[in-house]
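C-alpha cells incoming
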C-alpha cells in the first residue's frame, strides 16, 4: 500500500500520497500526449538523416527513406567528406564561432557595465538602440557591408564575417546584460569602492565572477548561433577555402548532383560538431540558467 499523508480540512481527514503527488486530470494527460507527439515530429528529420546517411543509393531506392539500412554503407559520408574537404570547413566554423563568441561576450560586458552600473546618461535610449539593432534584418545589411568590405580589402576574408557577427551578437548581449547589471546590488559595489577598488577592479573582481554563469550561457549561445549562420557567410566568403560548414553543404548541393544518401551524410556531419559542443557544455548551460532563475 502506498504511503499516505493525512490532511485535515473543515474537520474532515483526507489522505494523499506523500511527496505532494495528486491524481492526474484529463487535461494533464492531454498535454502529455501533445508533448510526446511534438517530440516525435521534431525527431522525424533527425531519424531520416541518421538512417539514410548509412545507406547506399541502391538500398535507399529499394527500401525507401524510413526503413533501416540493410547493410551499413559509409559511401555517402565519405563522398561529402572528400568533396568539400570537411575538416577545413569545420576548422573555419570553429575559428569564426569561437572568436565571435569570446569577443561578443567581452564587448557586451564592457558595454553593459558602463550602461547598467556606470549609469551613463540616456542609458534607456542606448539600450533601445541596441535592441533595434537586433531587429534589423540581415538582408538590409548585405549591400552596405559588401561595399565596405570590398573597399577595405576584407571581402572573402573570415575576419569580415567575424566583425559582422561580433557586432550583432554584442548588441544582443549588451541589451541583456545591461538589464541584469542594472539590478546589481549597490551594497556590494559600495563595499568594494570603500575598500579602494577602482572601476576596473570592481568589474573584473566583483561583477564578472558573480555574473559568470550568465556569461557562460551567452558564450554558448553566441557560438551556436554563429555556427548556424548561413546568409552572411555565403555572401562574404566566396572562395572554397574560407567557407563554413552550412555554406559548404548548400553550395555543394547546388553545384553538383548529389544522391539522397550523400545529402543525408552531409547533414549528419553538419549536426555532429554542434551536438558535441552542446553535450560538452550542457552542465555549464544548465548551471547558468538555474543561477539566473534563483536570486
Amino acid at each position: 500500500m502506498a504511503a499516505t499523508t493525512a490532511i485535515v480540512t473543515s474537520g474532515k481527514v483526507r489522505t494523499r500520497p506523500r511527496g505532494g503527488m495528486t491524481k492526474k486530470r484529463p487535461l494533464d494527460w492531454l498535454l502529455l500526449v501533445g508533448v510526446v507527439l511534438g517530440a516525435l515530429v521534431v525527431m522525424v528529420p533527425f531519424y531520416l538523416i541518421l538512417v539514410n546517411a548509412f545507406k547506399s543509393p541502391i538500398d535507399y531506392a529499394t527500401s525507401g527513406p524510413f526503413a533501416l539500412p540493410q547493410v551499413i554503407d559509409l559511401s555517402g559520408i565519405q563522398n561529402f567528406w572528400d568533396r568539400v574537404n570537411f575538416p577545413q570547413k569545420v576548422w573555419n566554423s570553429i575559428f569564426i564561432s569561437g572568436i565571435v563568441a569570446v569577443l561578443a561576450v567581452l564587448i557586451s560586458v564592457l558595454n553593459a557595465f558602463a550602461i547598467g552600473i556606470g549609469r551613463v546618461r540616456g542609458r534607456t535610449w542606448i539600450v533601445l538602440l541596441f535592441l533595434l539593432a537586433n531587429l534589423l534584418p540581415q538582408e538590409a545589411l548585405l549591400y552596405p557591408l559588401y561595399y565596405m568590405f570590398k573597399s577595405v580589402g576584407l571581402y572573402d576574408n573570415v575576419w569580415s564575417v567575424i566583425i559582422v557577427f561580433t557586432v550583432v551578437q554584442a548588441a544582443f548581449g549588451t541589451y541583456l546584460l545591461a538589464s541584469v547589471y542594472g539590478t546589481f546590488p549597490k551594497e556590494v559595489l559600495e563595499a568594494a569602492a570603500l575598500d579602494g577598488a577602482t572601476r576596473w577592479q570592481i568589474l573584473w573582481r566583483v561583477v564578472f565572477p558573480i555574473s559568470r554563469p550568465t556569461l557562460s550561457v551567452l558564450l554558448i549561445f553566441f557560438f551556436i548561433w554563429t555556427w548556424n549562420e548561413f546568409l552572411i557567410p555565403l555572401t562574404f566568403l566566396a572562395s572554397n577555402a574560407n567557407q563554413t560548414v552550412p555554406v559548404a553543404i548548400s553550395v555543394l548541393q547546388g553545384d553538383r548532383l548529389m544522391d539522397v544518401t550523400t545529402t543525408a551524410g552531409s547533414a549528419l556531419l553538419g549536426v555532429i560538431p554542434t551536438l558535441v559542443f552542446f553535450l560538452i557544455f550542457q552542465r555549464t548551460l544548465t548551471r547558468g540558467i538555474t543561477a539566473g532563475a534563483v536570486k
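note: The two ends are 40 Å apart (CA to CA).
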